[in-house]
Amino acid sequence: MQPYRLTGAASAWFAVLAQYGISISQSGLVPGTVIYFAFFTMLGNILVALAFTAPLLPAGHRPAFFLRPGVRSAIGVYILVVAVIFYLLLRKIYHPSGLGWFVNIQLHYINPPLYLLDWALFVPKRELRFVHIPFWLIFPVAYASYTMLHGAFSGFYPYPFLNAATLGYTHVGINIGGLTLLFAGASAGFVATGRYLLAATD
């Protein structure tokens, strides 16, 4: 378990730190930092890096929050949606080169399955409940709300399907509703899968 999580942590931290370096080198420290944290991809991968790292710390210094099965499951939902949305909607319009190409592969095609396998093999499933799902939705809904507010003042929207300046708020609202349903469906899938895995091992 520990060697696997060490590998996952190394991959996740390299990707998020390298992408931060790329962002500030292209846009400057302050604008690059704002742009970097505007992407749900980066927030999801940072959570993956923290979740991989937490169990590796000495017992007395492990952050309990990232050890909770519910929290680790929610992170699994977020990074799964990151991978699915990128593959379905963004891969044909985003073409980085050089180091950016490699980091993009890590962020969307390597780190998500690494973490999902960790969840399937090592995260306790007995505490997972469908009533947890509304709590897991708080983060993506808060992200969407912040993105709309920030975009209204700055004109910057990190994803084309959230760009209210070009699509209008009604269309973007429908998109956000659809994404919320995707997050909710993925969350239900995690709980159901957890119950199935429990039944298979009991």
Helices and strands, with pairings:
Layout: H1 2-27, H2 29-38, H3 40-53, H4 69-90, H5 99-122, H6 133-136, H7 138-154, H8 164-167, H9 169-201
Helix pairs in contact: 1-2, 1-3, 1-5, 3-4, 3-5, 4-5, 4-9
Q: How is this structure best described in words?
A:
The chain has 202 residues and is mostly helical. It has one domain (2-201). The chain has helices spanning 2-27, 29-38, 40-53, 69-90, 99-122, 133-136, 138-154, 164-167, 169-201. The longest helix has 33 residues, at 169-201.
Cα-to-Cα separation, first versus last residue: 21 Å
Order of helices and strands: HHHHHHHHH
Low-confidence stretches: none
- Hey, roughly how much beta strand do the residues contain? under 5%
- Rg over CA atoms, rounded to whole Å, is 17 Å
| Largest β sheet strand count, sense and barrel closure | none
Number of strands: 0
Mean model confidence by pLDDT:
95
Which descriptors apply to this entry?
9 helices, 202 residues, globular, mainly alpha
Quick overview of this protein structure:
By secondary structure, the chain is mostly helical. It contains 9 helices and no strands. Helix 4 crosses helix 9.
